[in-house]
Amino acid sequence: MRKNWLIDRRTCLKGLGVALALPLLETMGWAENPKSGGYKPPVRLGWMYMPNGVSQGHFWPKDAKTWLTTLSPSLEPLRPVVEHILVLDGLDNLDRAPFHQNGHILALAGWLTAAKPNPDKRDQINIAPSADQIAAEHLGLYTALPSLELGTRRNGGNGTGQDGLHTQYMTTGSYRTATQPLPVETSPGEVYKRLFTSRQSKQLKSGGPKVDPTQFKNTGGTAGTEEGTSLDRSMLDLVREGATDLRKQVSNDDQHQLDDYMDSVRSLEKRVIAIERQQAEAVKAAASGKSTASIQRSPPLEVKIPTGEMKWSEHVKVLGDLLILAFQSDATRVGTLITSYNQGLSYPELPFSDFHHDLSHHQKRPEILDKIAQIDRFNIEQFSYLVSRMKSLKEGSGTLLDNVIFTWDSGLGDGHGHTTTRLPTVIAGGGGGTIRSGRYVPKVTGNQGDLLTGILARAGVPMPKPIGCGTKMLPELS
Amino acid sequence: MSAFGLLVLAYVSNGSVHAVEASQLVQAFDTQIKPFVSTYCLDCHNSEKAKGDLDLSKFSSGKSALSQFHIWKDAAGRVHAQDMPPASKPGKELKQPSEAERAQFISWVRDLKHLAPKDPGRGTIRRLSQVEYANTLRDLLGVDPKVADQVPHDAIGEGFNSSISPLLMEKYLLVADEILDQAIKPDQLQVTWKAGQLDVVNGGKVEPGKIDGTARTLSGTTEIIAQLATPVDATYTIKVRAATEAVLGKEPTKLVLRIGGKDVGEVKITATPRAPATYSVTAKLPAGHAKVSLMMTNPVFQPPAPPAKRKPATPPKPGDSTAAEKPESPPPEPRIAIIETIEVTGPPAAKPSDLQRRLFVAVPSKDLSRHDAAKMIAESFARRAYRRPPTVNEIGVLLKVFDLADQEDEVFSQAVKLMLKAVLVSPAFLHLTPDQGSITGKDGDIVALGDHQLAAKLSYLFWSTMPDAELSALADAGKLRDPVVIEQQVRRMIMDPRSRTLFDGFGAQWLDLDLLDTVAVDEKKYALTKDMRAAMREEAALFFGTILREDRPVLEFIDADFTFLNGTLAKAYGLENTVKGPQMTRVTLSDRNRGGVLTMPGVLTVTSLPNRTSPVKRGAWVLDRILGEKPPPPPADVPPLEQQAGNDSLALNLRQRMERHRVDPVCFSCHQVIDPIGFGLENFDVVGRWRERDDTGALVDAVGELPGKQRFSTPAELKRILIKRKDDIVRALTYRALAYSLCRSLTPYDEVVADRIAEDVAKDGYKFQTLWVRITTSYPFLNRRISR
């Protein structure tokens, strides 16, 4: 049997519409645990986003003591997994000045950056790298994909909107660099193919241009060294080298354009290397009989990719399932799922067709707040479904859920005033024993930046400074 | 677009650009603006308090104000809307400027752009959008543009984000793979089995290949097997890379090669495991599937002792033992052969595709080395793919890629394929880049675009694809920069059917029709089917295309007596008895409540809410998209007008509810213009069907009045009032079209240019083609500033 976890394209396409059995990937950098003698799975980081804030009155638990039994209406769907849940109350993000006009345009942009755009370059994308990308920079070294960015709707957009800000801020949560917004993938089939189809590239017998190993150095990992190189990788390397030539010839203003290009080529090379390395690990492990397949793991999550039109909840679930599958099979360790943007979405599955955004300006009217609470609850339902899925997957001595930090939040507290205070924040998972779950913390002592800093630190991501407006790690996580 | 343009309605509509004296503007800052700011603004917006992060005290001159033009435009918009200065702050009434003072401030800000130095603006490199990438692949390689569907969708325009993310890069590589794998078949059959892929048969039992081994061993009666498929009857070469252990004496280790049960040759191995060697056998083979097998014919050797008579090489039979050796010799020892790879090559597996024949402009021969043939291919392909002559260095990179594959013993076509793949992921293919060698000059110098860059800029603007032969030839001849030639080319390109992409790019963005696919509407209630959405978009596309190709006045966008309908869309017009079938046909409209984009079902749908119309949305849309005025959004804690408290009483219809809100002066200044326009369109329901009664059953009241006592009572009359503002309309369209063409937001100097273009277009009968000719011959389109 070929111990190759990648599936050829045709087989993979067959996977659309039917559940396809997938292999688990050979894992790398799963530190051996000196105590138990087994492997310690790494911490995986996931984020899920809902726009427009929540109905605060329906959302928050009454108090920290009774909340486990008397869940608030919006959090009710979490009941089956509530002991794995941490609810954080009192998180603030930056206010929006000097962008006073905008209500929403920065909610998503500030979500994982805890930062604001550069006001002098507001008509371009110029903000800060987002926490997920800072994490991917480090954790992505071990996996075939550094990170996954998923969403139910295409993002992007041209032109400027409120306050003269680039409209792409409205629909972009992940920023690889200050100037590089990342597109989301919306098609489950495409995500599936990307995760599990193979690209064949002939291995070089010898030589080829030397790949600078320091560029691909695995910081602090246990992964192996370079083992040969493929034609594609060498080709990319030559092309990238050639780009420096073009770069010298263009204007200063245009150089960052080519820097982004070269950086993405490098990232692609890394991806090819990671796949090759993962396959080489599989070979080595098979030869030595010390496969990490010996780690106790559930068989891969079955994901059925729907073919036709999807309801919103189906779309969220299947994208979430793919993220979980990617975590489980160690195809990536970082992922985001944006369930909708602030404009445009109504929930036809609920018994009313109002736009989410329009409702969010509720004027404190109880009947509108009720509708918002139904939307909040419906979103939490999807989150809860995914948390349960993670809980059902064995991993080592625990479950996948024990080794993730899966955060659900919204860029606003209350949509009515576009507030960035009391951001609804629900964290699932144990973070490899670093998160103390089953708690409601009514008053946290930090902001969104502190939260992100605390989460990244728990996954072992080195940070030269706290994320965005943060100054420390949020103490209430443990 | 201008945030303070509302003044145009409130004051005198004056579209003409008068020469504004720079010195007057500079002077006015000291005599009028500075005193205004310090009297009405600095109380809060000073360096200490900087309320809302705004410090207006740092501006010391008109020039410094220009450097942050957006702040001043925003300020002017708020001053006009009477949003600023606020009436009071805690414990203090605030002094209010007079109307004249407000007007003076606003008009100074409007004219401020005339202080901008003549400058074509930054940046010239951008990547291709998804559409452009797909179309370019189509024209470059003759492939179906759908191959690029997996690339994230986007479109160029103002603020196009040009950065290439890792996901995008990955997709580019996958698409290149897919195209080239399809197009370029190996020019030879070439199959290689690595040891790990070879199965071993031992005593009738098959041991499948193991991935871990780098070599398979063969001894005794074991047999190594693999399955081969030969495409045609022909001569094939079989190369076995192998070594043997423990060869003592001179006799090589001999293997018999059988294909399809027939002996085809013998492999005599002498190489040691330290230095395996390749052994070739050629054989005529019939087409079909066959088993390839290797087996040893002399599985044991006789240690040196009394010389023994060599056994004749006979084909061994499975189970045949060596027990017949002479008993007096020392015990024989087994030989071991180590097989690393088996490779079979043969004649072409398939005929080269058309594409391959086109791309391979040279093939190696006696007189042409592989490297030189590759160079010719690289030069020809890169010229087209990069849309300009490639540089020596660029060709050098491609040839390095070719050599890399060539040295790896790839067959010629496969080595070229890797090189072509390199072209398709190169920065010069994925980006529009300046002509090489044209980049000289120091920081701040302004240079003209090269001919090839200009050709590409034009062709991507009008066709969303690479230049055709005519444009390329003009660029090669250095003739394209002549404005007369540009005008000819622009008009030619517009008349070509490919200019449809100008609607798909510019038109759809301008009219917000990209939202049609996803706009949330109660589909059952309004019968908004997929076909209907498609027809709505198509109507606008054909209408836009007609004004463009027939060079009609842009004012027809506001009001025209024709449109395009099919049976589906005719229902929205109440013309289902006149127009039938799926085909869109041109229809003359007798009902002047229709005609023009304002009353098109597509536009009316994207400016509605899911289950009712929104006069505010429609009114604001018309102001922004047609008249070029963007009212400042309401403060964050003010909900949309329809949702304010106390308005849910059924006794009040939508209109009455909204009128109550115009009592607040802050709301009034903007809504006095927005709301009447929106109400003037209330006869159209959520999906643009005519209606006499609204959702509550009440008769629609489309009567309204715009500032200046301009009254109307039907959409037709509303259009007649709006169309009077010819100059605003053409200016608004020019601003958008110029920003789209330059792929960035306009600088103050660009606005000066846009004003002039709009004037020219007005003078030339508002013709739509004139607009595009003027844009493509404008200073910012043809030049760029170097920054170092």
Using a beta-carbon cutoff below 8 angstroms, give the protein chain pair with the largest interface and the number of residues from each chain.
A-B, 93 and 92 residues
Distance between the termini of chain A: 45 Å
Strand % of chain A is: 5-15%
Helicity range of chain A: 25-40%
CATH class of chain A: Alpha Beta
Q: What oligomeric assembly is this protein in?
A: heterodimer
Please count the helical segments of chain A. 11
Order of the strands making up the biggest sheet of chain A: 3-6-1-9-10-2-11
Main sheet attributes: strand count, strand direction, barrel closure of chain B: 6 strands, antiparallel
Report the CATH topology name of chain A.
Alkaline Phosphatase, subunit A
Give the class of chain B from helix and strand content and strand pairing: alpha+beta
Shape of chain A: globular
Low-confidence stretches of chain A: 1-21, 206-227
Structural description of this entry:
The complex is a heterodimer of chains A (478) and B (788). Chain A is of the alpha/beta class. Chain A has a single domain (9-199, 290-477), classed as Alkaline Phosphatase, subunit A, CATH 3.40.720. In chain A, 31% of the residues lie in helices and 9% in strands. Chain A has helices spanning 9-14, 56-59, 107-111, 131-139, 188-196, 231-249, 252-288, 312-328, 356-360, 366-391, 448-458; strands at 44-49, 85-88, 148-151, 175-177, 180-181, 334-338, 394-395, 398-399, 404-409, 425-428, 439-441. In chain A, strands 3-6-1-9-10-2-11 form a 7-stranded mixed sheet, sandwiched between helices. In chain A, helix 6 (231-249) packs antiparallel against helix 7 (252-288). The longest helix of chain A is centred in the middle third of the chain and has 37 residues, at 252-288. Mean pLDDT of chain A is 82; it is low at 1-21 and 206-227. In chain B, helix 7 (166-183) runs antiparallel to helix 11 (412-424) and helix 25 crosses helix 27. In chain B, the strands form 8 sheets. Chain B has a 6-stranded antiparallel sheet with strand order 6-5-8-13-10-11, with no helix packed on it. In chain B, strands 4, 7, 9, 12 and 16 form a 5-stranded antiparallel sheet that branches. Among the domains of chain B are: 6-114, no CATH class; 189-346, Jelly Rolls (Sandwich), CATH 2.60.120.260; 512-658 and 682-701, no CATH class. Chain B is an alpha+beta fold and 788 residues long. Chain B is built from 28 helices and 23 strands. Classes of the chains: A alpha/beta (478), B alpha+beta (788). The interface between A and B is large, with 93 and 92 residues.
